[in-house]
């Protein structure tokens, strides 16, 4: 009699179990154990912090070399600069349009819910607001895309500059052909090494996610949420509409693919983005998932995903749109239709060149508030509960990147729909 083989729990399932258990443990520690110096110092600020941040650093370690190698390989594989230009223009236009739509959705939801109406500012806990108010002109933002020193860009992790440099190198490799075959092979092998390293690091994801989530929730009490419950609800509702509504309609219209299947396959990446709250750390997992589960060619995803992690901040823009309405209503300041248009334009432009790191949205929010004459001090009211919203909007950001990548791949005949339509069990068999 043949032995029945035990079904192994997949990495996806383990990550979600870790996410749930971490949240439960964090809430339990907050209400039943803390404040307790030993638990706080040894477990929360010790084990959870070290393991969680250690895992996050391992993911961040992968980003720059993976993006450099995969982008160079992708650009050289596309070869034709005309095709590459089309991919680039379509991607940037898509990101800008979805960001503008995201702000419009946020403002509409906020105007319906009115999160700041009747708000007693005395009930709010005010965090100290230290936000840089220096603004960069559009000209400087465009010039900053071109690296003065590519080595410095790689060292500092300036993603836009790395993308530009890698694309130029890739195009030259394609142009020179056999003359530079050794260099091409070097980057190809480097890409293979980085993907293998990604798989090794991802095997630690359940432990890392558990520690990150447990520490986050151990410091969060529901008491801090109560005065801001309408604000949080408005942000979360707008995020859901953008992620499950706007994106999936665009996916269906431009590719004909099943949005439910897309969400099911991409859900682990969304969960990972939620736990890390950083788009950049999610780049390796997004590229791998799109190739293995969705059938998206790496030559497309290696270009669009890093670019999206840098300039596509729809979730962040949603928070900014709701925050503007909330702060204006809390202070009793009336906004005109022109102010709303200004918010859409400023929030869209502010997302370009913004780093994909935790809580960066609060920095760019100061630009948006200044553009319509609202007090920057209002940011202090929402800083205390921003972490949980930051995690949620990061999940939306990377979903937008993936939808754009799938659409662009489909338009460039770089999408294998047979792979997309296969169930996950068939892909892992």
Automatic annotation (TrEMBL):
Subcellular location: Cell membrane
Pfam assignment, any one: SDF
InterPro entries linked to this entry: Na-dicarboxylate_symporter (IPR001991), Na:dicarbo_symporter_sf (IPR036458)
A molecular function GO annotation: symporter activity
One Gene Ontology term from the biological process aspect of the record: dicarboxylic acid transport
The UniProt record lists the keyword Transmembrane: yes
Main location: membrane
Listed GO CC annotations: plasma membrane
Keywords associated with the record: Cell membrane, Membrane, Symport, Transmembrane, Transmembrane helix, Transport
Parts of the chain that traverse the membrane: 12-31, 58-80, 92-113, 159-176, 197-217, 229-254, 363-385
Source organism superkingdom: Bacteria
Membrane topology: Multi-pass membrane protein
Protein name: Dicarboxylate/amino acid:cation symporter
Organism: Butyricicoccus pullicaecorum
Lineage per the UniProt record: Bacteria, Bacillati, Bacillota, Clostridia, Eubacteriales
């Amino acid at each position: 009699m043949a032995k029945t083989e035990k079904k192994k729990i997949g990495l996806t399932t383990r990550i979600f179990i870790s996410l749930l258990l971490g949240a439960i443990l964090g809430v339990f520690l907050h209400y039943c154990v803390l404040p307790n110096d030993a638990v706080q110092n040894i477990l929360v600020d010790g084990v959870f912090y070290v393991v969680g941040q250690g895992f996050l650093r391992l993911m961040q370690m992968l980003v720059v070399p993976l993006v450099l190698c995969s982008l160079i390989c992708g650009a050289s594989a596309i070869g034709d600069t005309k095709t590459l230009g089309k991919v680039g223009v379509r991607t940037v236009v898509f990101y800008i349009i979805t960001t503008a739509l995201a702000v419009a959705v946020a403002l509409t939801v906020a105007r319906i819910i009115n999160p700041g109406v009747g708000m007693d500012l005395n009930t709010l806990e005010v965090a100290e607001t230290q936000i840089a108010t220096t603004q960069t002109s559009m000209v400087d933002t465009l010039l900053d895309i071109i690296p003065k020193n590519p080595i410095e860009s790689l060292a500092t992790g300036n993603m836009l500059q790395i993308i530009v440099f890698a694309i130029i190198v890739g195009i030259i490799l394609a142009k020179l052909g056999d003359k530079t075959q050794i260099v091409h092979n070097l980057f190809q092998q480097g890409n293979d090494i980085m993907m293998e390293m990604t798989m090794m690091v991802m095997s630690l994801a359940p432990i890392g996610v558990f520690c990150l989530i447990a520490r986050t929730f151990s410091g969060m009490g529901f008491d801090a949420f109560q005065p801001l419950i309408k604000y949080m609800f408005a942000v979360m509702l707008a995020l859901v509409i953008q992620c499950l509504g706007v994106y999936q309609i665009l996916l269906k219209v431009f590719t004909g693919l099943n949005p439910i299947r897309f969400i099911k396959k991409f859900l682990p990446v969304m969960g990972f983005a939620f736990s890390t709250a950083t788009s950049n750390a999610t780049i390796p997992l997004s590229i791998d998932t799109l190739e293995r589960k969705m059938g998206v060619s790496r030559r497309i995803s290696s270009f669009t995903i890093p670019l999206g992690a840098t300039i596509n901040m729809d979730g962040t823009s949603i928070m900014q749109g709701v925050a503007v309405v909330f702060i204006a209503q809390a202070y009793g300041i009336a906004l005109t239709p022109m102010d709303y248009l200004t918010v859409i334009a400023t929030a869209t432009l502010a997302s370009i060149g913004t780093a994909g790191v935790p809580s960066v949205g609060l920095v760019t929010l100061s630009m948006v508030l200044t553009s319509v004459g609202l007090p920057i001090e209002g940011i202090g009211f929402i800083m205390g509960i921003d972490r949980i919203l930051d995690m949620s909007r990061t999940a939306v950001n990377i979903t937008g990147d993936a939808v754009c990548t799938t659409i662009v791949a489909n338009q460039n005949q770089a999408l294998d729909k047979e792979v997309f339509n296969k169930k996950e069990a068939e892909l892992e068999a």
